[in-house]
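Final report, closing paragraph on structural work. Over the funding period we assembled a curated collection of sequence-structure pairs, and we close with a single example.
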Amino acid sequence: MIRMENVTKRYAADAPPSVDNLTLDIPEGSTVALIGPSGCGKTTTMRMINRLIEPTEGRIFVNGDDVTQGDPVLLRRHIGYVIQNVGLFPHMTIAENIASVPVLLHWSQEKIAARTDELLHLVGLDPKEFLNRYPRQLSGGQRQRIGVARALAADPSVILMDEPFGAIDPIARTRLQDEFKQILKRVRKTVVLVTHDLDEAIRLGDRIAIMRAGKIVQYDTPDAILSHPADAFVESFVGVDRAIKRLSLFTVRDAVATGALPAGTATIALDTNLRDALSLLIAANTDRLGVIGADGQSAGILTRDAIFAV
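Its predicted structure, as stored:
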């Protein structure tokens, strides 16, 4: 889907490269998170894909086409883009913001209206309530949802996201991350996500590319990176609590056992991740929890030893 071949970016001829001979393959329908310390080249790498930044050397392919040879304006109309501060047009209604790219692509008004309604429902907002509002009338989380809807408007196969949830409070950020992950399951897009938040990369990424000084030092699944860091830098970057972080990749469903608990025992939902489950065990000062299924019925028990076994 996306392939970067020996891509280098220098901002000055005598300066060290911001991105240094980078080669990266991103499979169709996957979400890849680019992460690393400030100045490592992750944002430059992402922005070269839609040519907001032009590469100095190398080639970039999207759907088999070398995008470095085409019209960058046309390219951007077919790649969704979500940024931290959303970038909604303040003088345009929500409907007009979402329709901005379809209008450039000369869609009919009927098709635009239907697509706008569909996308507002997809991001959990009522079209009747939000279509005619302006960005200033929305909360930060609502504006971010509109930013995602606008990026999806023309049904692009590729979406680029630059710190999309960074300006939102932690509670809303976690909720939006989970909702976006559910959206991706329904619409199946190829996503490149730049983030400084390792937890976000683990939560959203099918694969994570850890960068340092313009190069990728490890590119693998979250589980592989957390369980087998490639070198001392990666080990330090993911932190000494990487075993705890790794628990977030599994859910109670992976560790539940049959059994019943006495009344009054703390309970947990079947789809809760094991990192949160361990926190609840500690908070409740117990070594086991009752597990509740989606139907509200008992689904078994979760023990501390079962979490450690996973």
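The longest helix spans residues 170-187. The longest strand covers residues 2-9. We thank the funder for supporting this effort.
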